[in-house]
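Q: I'm writing up a methods section and want to include an example of the input and output format. Could you take the sequence below and give the corresponding predicted structure tokens, formatted cleanly so I can copy it straight into the document?
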Amino acid sequence: MDEKTPHLHLTFVPLTKDNRLCAKEIIGNRANLTKWQDTNTNNVLLSYVNVKIAELDGHKQEFLAKIAELTVEAISPEQVSQISGYLDTWDSVSFDDKRRVVDLMITTVAATSDSLNITWKI
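A: Here is the clean output for your methods example:
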């Protein structure tokens, strides 16, 4: 966002039931206008944020589904080469990169006090 103070512009035309333009009849006084702005602006912003969260969650679910569809056969030779490169220099690889490699190679890890079971994708 390129604004220091995020804000919303709203155009409102106060029409009465008989289609007359009358802000005083619809809103009342300045205190009522301020109260109306605070209440309705918060509701509009909250609704907007909820819609955006739902959209982002939908995108996340799509990506998770695509990731779940990946199989060993879907790993390209370039990815195998990159993974091999990581394994050669594993001690100097960042934690996030190690996690990515492990995510590509391992389906599940089950650990108990007696055993460690790893289900490999390869």
